[in-house]
Amino acid sequence: MLADRVSFAISKGYRIPPPPTVAARIAGASEIAFSHFKNLEPQRGLSMPSPREEAFVFNIPLAPARYPIVSIDGRRQSVVQDPGKAYLFDLTSRNEVSLEASYDSIRIHLPQTTIDCMAYERGLPRVGGLRADCLGQDDVVLYRLALTVLPAILNSVQVTTAFMEYIALALHDHVIYTYGNIRRSASTTGGLTPWQTRRACDFIEANLAADPSIAELSRECGISASYFARAFRVTFGMTPHQWITRRRIELAKSLMAQTTESLAEIAVMCGFVDQSHLGRHFLRLESISPAQWRRRRHPE
């Protein structure tokens, strides 16, 4: 698994405990790994050279960090990393950094095979590597993506497969046009057709207790995953993950109103991990807890 391999490599290279890491992928493509890269105890010396592979790493600072030495193929420089900027490293190079710094960032590990597979799936030409204008390019999009995925990395919230797929698609879309050799087409994505809308909704309703993915939904509609994700948002005004969550909440409300099942049982029946998972989403969308909502419907 990419997440385990990346976490181990970071731990070994930076002499820190294995950082929490999650992976996102679209069926048919390799994974993208997201790590919470944090250490508040500076050490002496340099990190071990990162293992060479055809992949790229984006370091997205969550707090300012000053690295006295950043060495790329022997060329050294001092780098101050600031939130709101993205620091791109090519892993075919020999990359080392000074450990005499405290840091808190999201590290995105993006294999070349993932870039190519996702481009192919979208009908785009092969992306010939990634390049930044400088080491520390302004990139508020990657910064916001990093903040969005952080709770999932820390396991403070449970997320759906559709959520991680949407993150992977959004990342790929931004990266290939910002750092790759692909030019964005002037054409825009329309919404789903009426039959695709019905097919997607029917599939979601039939699989709420499972974990319907963007890849599965796109196959049902006969279009690519990336096109489906964009068209779904045009049609519904929200991401597939957000729609699935709302439909699960509606199902939970129906079960609470019509059955005597416990909240724990209802949570699982609706596709939530557990009762607390249901409770967090219910409170966020309904501004009331499931138990309070049920009591109002069935006062004793």
Give a verbal description of the structure.
The protein has eleven helices and nine strands. It is of the alpha+beta class and 300 residues long. It folds into three domains: 2-178, Jelly Rolls (Sandwich); 194-237, Arc Repressor Mutant, subunit A, CATH 1.10.10; 242-297, Arc Repressor Mutant, subunit A (Orthogonal Bundle), CATH 1.10.10.60. The model has no long low-confidence stretch (mean pLDDT 90).
What is the strand arrangement across the widest sheet? 1-2-8-3-6-9
Question: Whole-Å distance between the termini?
Answer: 52 Å
CATH architecture of the largest domain: Sandwich
The largest sheet is:
6 strands, antiparallel
Helix and strand pattern = HEEEEEEEEHEHHHHHHHHH
CATH level 1 name of the largest domain: Mainly Beta
- Quickly give the structural class: alpha+beta
Count the beta strands.
9
**How many DSSP H or I helices?**
11
* CATH level-four homologous superfamily name of the largest domain: Jelly Rolls
Gross geometry = globular
Low-confidence stretches: none
| Rg estimate, integer Å | 22 Å
Tally the structural domains: 3
Name the helicity range. Answer: 40-55%
**Which fold does the CATH topology of the largest domain refer to?**
Jelly Rolls
Question: Averaging pLDDT over every residue, what do you get?
Answer: 90
